[in-house]
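STRUCTURE:
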C-alpha cells in the first residue's frame, strides 16, 4: 500500500501507524505528489460531478 500526501511528510505518520498495526508492504511515497509529478510520472484525476474535464 502506498500512502501519499502533497510533499511526503504528512503521509509518514499514517504509514507508520499502519505498519505498527500489522499492515505489511506499506510505503510512504517520498516527495509526495509533488515529487511524483517532478519525476515525470503520470497522474490522473477521477471524474467529479459538477466539474468539467476540459
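SEQUENCE:
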Amino acid at each position: 500500500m502506498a500512502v501519499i500526501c502533497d510533499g511526503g511528510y504528512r503521509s509518514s505518520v499514517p504509514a507508520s501507524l499502519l505498519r505498527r498495526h500489522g499492515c505489511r508492504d506499506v510505503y510512504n511515497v517520498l516527495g509526495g505528489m509533488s515529487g511524483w509529478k517532478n519525476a515525470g510520472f503520470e497522474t490522473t484525476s477521477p471524474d467529479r460531478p459538477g466539474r468539467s474535464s476540459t
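REMARK: Strands lie at 2-3, 27-28.
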